[in-house]
Amino acid sequence: MTARVFAEGSAMRIKFRCLPGYRGHVPEPRRASEALPDWVRKMPAAATSPTRGGIDVPTVKRCPPFLDAVREGIVFPLVTDLHVRGGEISWDWDLPEVEGRLTIESPIGVHAPEQLTGAPFRVDREQFAIKFSNFWAIEAPAGVSLLFSHPFNREDLPFRTLTGLVDVDAFTRGFVNFPALWVDPGFEGTLPKGTPVAQAVPIRREALELEFDVGEFDEAGFAEQRAFQTALSEDPSVYRKAYRQKRDGRGRDEASDL
Could you tell me the superkingdom of the organism this chain comes from (predicted)? Predict the structure, then answer.
């Protein structure tokens, strides 16, 4: 079961804590619904398709499942500009000195390729394993974990964050860092501060025994399925209008509301 973050009437309080003196220097986690990429906002709601006989077809901007995934949960931003030149990553960033600090202050680290031995990931000099540093300890309510992953539908980014599940109701004083693969060896330039490097969705750890019921539609179910397909062919937005559930201030009917 997925717990909705900040949902009206059922708010879930997620606590974020940084080291003394770091606040204001380290970008704060954000609601994903407040961190949509510019290309989603700018893309058209429809585009002409030569492969469909020149008719206008809706883009993913009119696809509620696509948008709802992008808006779900929490995003963690890159803490400073990363400059990529000739296969090297550099930065110019200073954090305040904290007496007794036992954590690193580098915004990024590197994983040894051997740590991925046996995994089907290509890791070599061109596509290497990195680790984005996170400077926020996270505390969720009892029974809640966070599922961390690559920012949803963000194939424009030159890296791919690996997916992991962390019990942040117990692991409340450590920092969850974000391992990733650098997948674009041709990238040159600056990866700007604030770029989402991970997206997290709260998951309730409730005992759940899955029971599969696999079969064919009966006559009534098949009639209902045909009726739905007919409605969908007449109005491609039928899911958005009749089935989509409102969540976290979303559920708006028009792409122009983004």
Answer: Bacteria
Q: What is the pLDDT of residues 145-172, one digit of tens each?
A: 999 999 999 999 999 999 999 999 999 9
How many other β-carbons are positioned within 10 Å of the β-carbon of residue 14? 20
Distance (Å, rounded) from C-alpha 113 to C-alpha 211? 39
Paired with 190 in beta bridges are 83
23, 30 Cβ separation under 8 angstroms: no
Task: Write down the domain spans for the chain.
Answer: 15-36+71-208
User: Which residue matches tokens 């899955």?
Assistant: 210
Q: What is the DSSP string of 191-214?
A: E-TT-EEEEEEEEE----------
Model confidence pLDDT, tens digit, residues 37-58: 999 989 998 888 888 888 888 8
Say which CATH class 15-36+71-208 falls into.
mainly beta
Q: Whole-prediction pTM value?
A: 0.84
